[in-house]
Amino acid sequence: MTKIKICGMTCEEDIKAVNKYLPDYIGFVLFFPKSKRNISIKQAKDLLAKADKRIKTVAVVVSPTIEQLLQIEEARFDYIQIHGTMTKEVYEQCTLPILRAFNISNLEKLEKYEIKDKIKGYVFDSKNPGSGETFDWKLLDHIRQKQKTVIFLAGGIDENNVKRAISEVAPDVIDLSSAVEKVSKDGAFFGKDPEKVKTIITIVHGQ
Ligand SMILES: O=C(O)c1ccccc1NCC(=O)[C@H](O)[C@H](O)COP(=O)(O)O
């Protein structure tokens, strides 16, 4: 069965939706104020306490500092997902399993990380994470064949392209955010839409 991660939990309503429909992973964007999904570590802790324990929790960060890493570890997430730069110090001090994210513009850095044993998965995402944009999945063809680690496919996946994503890329985990959000016509953001969450989880778990 293909697994699914719903990223960008921001409020209690989001947690109620995921607790009802049980994706395999949920993500929390931290220390990244540019994102509309960014929440504080305190908000994240409150939401983590309410999340169903069957769902694995992921702290999603960009180029984290040691201080941020320590706060994430103290909050007891199951995984840390690292976009941007991962310094040697952060890698060495990290006690959480790492999901290393590659935005499709820096795929060439992949080889550098292949043998690092704390890396428990790769997230392949579009150039702008959380933007709802897809990328050319063919770029992953050679990577998919030689990787033994868990592969997350992200970037603009929705109920219309998710079956094709699964059949063409065969990821272990489908990772998405924008496609299950409530957004008004003027672009205001209201968190996750429970019906959209239900629909996509049903499709992915059925594959
Ligand atoms: O979601 C964000 O705003 C975000 C910001 C900074 C780094 C990562 C971010 N999201 C990471 C994810 O795992 C998203 O699920 C992934 O980018 C796919 O998003 P979408 O294209 O909106 O489905």
SSE map:
Elements: E1 3-6, H1 12-21, E2 25-29, H2 41-50, E3 56-62, H3 66-75, E4 79-83, H4 88-93, E5 98-103, H5 110-113, E6 119-125, H6 141-146, E7 150-154, H7 162-169, E8 173-176, E9 181-183, E10 189-192, H8 194-205
Parallel strand pairs: 1-2, 1-8, 2-3, 3-4, 4-5, 5-6, 6-7, 7-8
Antiparallel strand pairs: 9-10
Helix pairs in contact: 1-8
The structure holds ligand LARABZUK.
Share of helical residues:
25-40%
Main-sheet strand order equals 1-2-3-4-5-6-7-8
Instruction: Quote the beta fraction.
Output: 15-25%
Order of helices and strands: EHEHEHEHEHEHEHEEEH
**Form type:** globular
Q: Which value, in Å, is the CA radius of gyration?
A: 16 Å
Relevant CATH superfamily: Aldolase class I
Question: Which regions have little confidence, pLDDT < 50, spanning 5+ residues?
Answer: none
Count of alpha and pi helical runs: 8
Architecture per CATH nomenclature, i.e. the level-2 architecture:
Alpha-Beta Barrel
- Per CATH, the class reads Alpha Beta
Number of domains: 1
Here the CATH topology equals TIM Barrel
Organism: Anaerobutyricum hallii
Pathway: Amino-acid biosynthesis; L-tryptophan biosynthesis; L-tryptophan from chorismate: step 3/5
Protein name: N-(5'-phosphoribosyl)anthranilate isomerase
Domain N-(5'phosphoribosyl) anthranilate isomerase (PRAI): 4-201
Could you walk me through the main structural features you see in this protein, from its secondary elements to its overall organization?
It is a single chain. This protein is of the alpha/beta class and 207 residues long. It has a single domain (3-205), classed as TIM Barrel (Alpha-Beta Barrel). It contains eight helices and ten strands. The protein has helices at residues 12-21, 41-50, 66-75, 88-93, 110-113, 141-146, 162-169, 194-205; strands spanning 3-6, 25-29, 56-62, 79-83, 98-103, 119-125, 150-154, 173-176, 181-183, 189-192. It has an eight-stranded parallel β-barrel. Helix 1 packs parallel to helix 8. The longest helix has 12 residues, at 194-205. The chain is globular, with a radius of gyration of 16 Å. The N and C termini lie close together (6 Å). The model has no long low-confidence stretch (mean pLDDT 92). The structure holds the ligand O=C(O)c1ccccc1NCC(=O)[C@H](O)[C@H](O)COP(=O)(O)O. Ligand LARABZUK is lined by residues 7-8, 27, 29, 32, 35, 37, 60, 62, 83, 125, 129-132, 154-157, 175-179.
